[in-house]
Amino acid sequence: MKGRLIFLLLMVLIFSVQGREQYSNSIVLELTHRHAPQLNTRTKTQDQRLKDLLHHDFIRHNIISHKWRQGLQPRARTRRVQAWEQTPITTATTSNFTAAIEMPLGSGRDMGIGQYITSVKVGTPSQKFRLIVDTGSDLTWINCRYRCARSDNCPKKGRIKGRRVFHAHLSSSFRPVPCFSQMCMVELMNLFSLTTCPTPLTPCAYDYRYIDGSAAMGVFANETVTVSLTNGRKRRLHNVLIGCSDSFQSPTLQNVDGVIGLANSKYSFATNAAEKLGGKFSYCLVDHLSHINGSNYLIFGTNHNQVMVTGNTHYTRLELNLVSSFYAVNVMGISIGGKMLDIPFQVWDTTKGGGTILDSGTSLTVLTDPAYQPVMEAIKMSVSKYQKVKLDGVPMDYCFNSTGFDDTLVPKLIIHFADGARFEPHRKSYVIAAADGVRCLGFLPARFPGTSVIGNIMQQNYLWEFDLEGNKLGFAPSACSTS
Ligand SMILES: *[C@@H]1O[C@H](CO)[C@@H](O)[C@H](O)[C@H]1NC(C)=O
Ligand SMILES: *[C@@H]1O[C@H](CO)[C@@H](O)[C@H](O)[C@H]1NC(C)=O
Ligand SMILES: *[C@@H]1O[C@H](CO)[C@@H](O)[C@H](O)[C@H]1NC(C)=O
Ligand SMILES: *[C@@H]1O[C@H](CO)[C@@H](O)[C@H](O)[C@H]1NC(C)=O
What we know:
Keywords: Aspartyl protease, Glycoprotein, Hydrolase, Protease, Signal. The chain is α+β, with helices and mostly antiparallel strands.
């Protein structure tokens, strides 16, 4: 009995050492913000960028809350989607707001598209694509031609109408998912697979709908994705589910070729890459609203100090599958200047109030009203001696003239997690440089009940590690610089 136990322990030890060997490589990808100067053909002013971000955040929050409500009634999602019949998401809750930013709610569902862009290579031989990185997306998809394979007059390679296109027939590793498969009929249902299946081997098709009637349509396939490892070698990830989108239209997708999905779901890129690289991924983001130039990094596998941290790493429980495929955390409260605010606990409760998620694709931090009001009251006192500023077309209530502004006057905001971990964001992450000489409190109100979101500006200059196998979220302050 004892011998067996020792044998088992030895096996575990050998296994974990081998495991570490195998995972000694990790992938580090550089991220560019969607609003980075080099990506914009026309340069935008800082308040235009802020308006764009707000607009985007509102649409995205609508999607997040919609998914949360859907998650509360799992039975509502048992029917598969017929082409063109999906119900659009209601825009009622944001109608006041969007009117204020003077923009139509054009892109509607927006697929939860995030803010950061990276490059990966797809197929065999590989073709390079610039993809939006999104913790809110389950699906990785690229601008692609599939049907071209059977037509004579289609381009053999390269761009179509100035856009990079993946030509499926030129890749020897492209494996369409058959529409008759369990994968298409059941597992990809949440990724909007269609019921149409003229022959069993017809590729499984999808249809993402937008409120304005535009859509992204295509077929699902397994493909090989090639990424560069930190040691300079390349790593090929096989059987990555991708969407081959042969039609898409969206104002948010200018200058990019698709989306890389980092949501927590079976077929997302994050899950696939993490499975092969130690079960975790991390990112470090710098402030894109300030003038500080710096890089953002996305790491699959363990961060072997490639992105350096400047303080201790704290851990809290990462709640997977609690709010759809988002990354949820158990917030217990918020303190400001050492004083715990009076926020009803229901706000943080997923089933009663909506809970809290960490999102790379939402810029500002979204708090539902019962949390938003006390937080604003507590911070605004510290900046009351500065002149209030109303930015044209920007519906933020708490902006002020920051001439002579002293950061140290702002009380420390701390997000307290139920397991005792504390996240202390940098002050510039909640009193944000919104325009020249103007700072704004970086929060957006949302209706209760609804999901609160820790946005990417609040997360900036921290390294966030999503440990999918250990159900842990690690965070440590960092300048997001590499060694
Ligand atoms: C829109 O604004 C009006 C007045 O400002 C308010 O009465 C109404 O409740 C608001 N609607 C929503 C959906 O917030
Ligand atoms: C695609 O990959 C999945 C594993 O992720 C596998 O179960 C499935 O059989 C593959 N399908 C095809 C058509 O290669
Ligand atoms: C930051 O980047 C911009 C544009 O890329 C450049 O003009 C500016 O000089 C840079 N600033 C610093 C401090 O490096
Ligand atoms: C802020 O105040 C200074 C001096 O009081 C003034 O010159 C400047 O124009 C103000 N800025 C804004 C954006 O109102």
